[in-house]
Design goal:
The protein is an all-alpha fold. Helices cover 75% and strands 0% of the residues.
Length: 139
Amino acid sequence: MNQDRVLVIVKDIDRFFKDFECIQVKNVDDLKDKKEFYATSMLLFSIINRAIDLGEEIVADKKIGLPTTYKDIFYLLEKNRIINKQLFEQLSSLIYFRNLAAHEYHTFTEKDVFTALKNINAVKIFVDIVKKIMSRQQK
């Protein structure tokens, strides 16, 4: 595993989560404010993209397949017992949001953003798993 690349990705994710501290979204109505809506959307999009990058690193390092979609990355991780089924499902829902934000941004709503926001901690769990993998490889 390219540990330098993984560390940069993890730092980016940590920075994006820290940026969330400046945003005070507690419920879906808070996203009616366009600044909150777009800031939250972009942070979610950025975190999810970096989680995808992190997943790609693990899949390549473990040589567990060639994903053809972003969701496939996490499917391969679940199939190879690197993540559990619940985490796979949470990350898959975030991939759905990411694709919606990337390709159908004109259709997604405050509810879509808030749903993704409620699930974004799955990325923190995934990062913790990756850190444990890195730790074992360093021994």
